[in-house]
# Entry
Amino acid sequence: MINLKKNKNIVILFIFVFLFGIFLMFTDKFQLDSNDKQSIENDTEKIKSENCENTEQKLAEILSNVKGVGEVRVMIEYSEGKESIIAENRKSENNSQSENTQNKNESEIAFSNNNPVVLKEIYPKVKGVIVVAQGGDNVEIKNQIISAVMSLLDLDANKIEVLTMK
# Structure
């Protein structure tokens, strides 16, 4: 009788240790995934910042080459950040016994050369543009600048402001 209780306690102890081990494996897995996602978000913000600055510089360079414009500074306001659709490896297991059915779905970010695999990138939408130009006081030059920005960034004229540089 004592032997049966001892065996029962040992079985319960083994089950508890087994379940605790599984719990630790899953919490460790989620910890890694959240760290990976944070790293990807940081990289995305860095790329967004670089793309925005690059677009502003290119636009300023192009506009400064227009006759009568002179020196130009450009600021572009975006409505949201760049979004990257990341590839995921998905695993699915189905275990069924006579009365119980268990479904297990796992998802991991797919990596290639220690970088996440990007399926698609959605670039931010432009909310508005401010152009500060030396020739901004001339109405003809101002209209040329507005027309160029409208064409390049697919914006309405009311979202573009051209100001005169001091």
